[in-house]
């Protein structure tokens, strides 16, 4: 039972720390030059194709992929360090995020040689962007109940249905879409497949879903008789559930699951340093710092598992469950510890706090709700 939750303690090498200093200096220069300001939730809400292109030019996208596909054959831990710094600085990484984090690895594992050659080099250069088509209206967290379907036709598939909460679909070039390609049976996980949909194709409609902040990064995407060629099937027809679950392991374990509000944490400490702190303040900050350190060690352990080719379903779910609660705790601590916002002169703090509080309802929903994750953990340790 305990075995499935074991994680190794990962020691980062001198090489990875040199890389950390390199990207940290790059990000400091970008901020000084006015390229961006730090934001909370930047991996989801801050789209900047030009910035993603700069990362691609420096070899910081597609880092672990083979060189023959435009990658750089660096380690998963080197990629982790780059990702960690980008998030800690609140950099605008939403444009390339899904393609670099999960679509690229999906193509490497299940894609055809044509798909790898066509997509991976351009993803690694920050030239093309992907969205993920999983959730649907009326399905909630029950992904197996999706109704978007594709029927076989000459030369490809005819796709109909809709997806919801598709981040960046209004900017993206393609979307990897989970759909039903055969009649539903008692085993609802059977008969699902993944198709690469060109979002500029005839029959595709993208409609915005705006947040309370007025920001637009979520969308509904509708498919009306959209033709998808046979060569845009990912992996094997009918294996879509297995492939999607493998893809979600990359989504649930990264530092984005506990660093979304880190820029606020930094500004909170700056504000608190300006006045004498009582014991309660010191204890609260100490607890948050301890949780952050623990989550980072856990997330690094999962990265180490990925490096070895081990599937981290249970531990990745645990990192996301604990990490997204921690993100919310930072926002709550900032609201509580700095009681009178009108007396705070730190404009960045006030802006980041507003962002964090308005984005917070989504922390424990996106990428799998807390209830779903705990079900995965329970099965993994043998108590369900």
Distance between the termini: 12 Å
Question: Given the helix and strand composition, which structural class is it?
Answer: alpha+beta
Number of helices: 12
Helix percent reads 40-55%
Order of helices and strands: HHHHHHEEEEEEEEHHHHHH
Number of strands: 8
Q: State mean pLDDT (0 to 100 scale).
A: 89
What's the alpha carbon Rg, rounded to whole Å? 21 Å
Task: Give the strand order of the largest sheet, numbering strands 1, 2, ... along the chain.
Answer: 1-4-5-8
Could you describe the 3D structure shown?
A hairpin with a 2-residue loop joins strand 2 (149-153) and strand 3. The protein has helices at residues 14-32, 42-45, 49-57, 76-88, 94-110, 113-124, 240-252, 262-273, 279-307, 313-337, 347-359, 370-380; strands at 130-133, 149-153, 156-164, 174-180, 192-198, 204-210, 216-229, 233-234. The protein contains twelve helices and eight strands. Helix 5 crosses helix 7 and helix 8 packs parallel to helix 10. Helices cover 46% and strands 14% of the residues. By secondary structure, it is α+β, with helices and mostly antiparallel strands.
Quick synopsis:
This protein has helices at residues 14-32, 42-45, 49-57, 76-88, 94-110, 113-124, 240-252, 262-273, 279-307, 313-337, 347-359, 370-380; strands at residues 130-133, 149-153, 156-164, 174-180, 192-198, 204-210, 216-229, 233-234.
Keywords summarizing the entry:
single chain, 384 residues, alpha+beta, 4-stranded mixed β-sheet, 8 strands
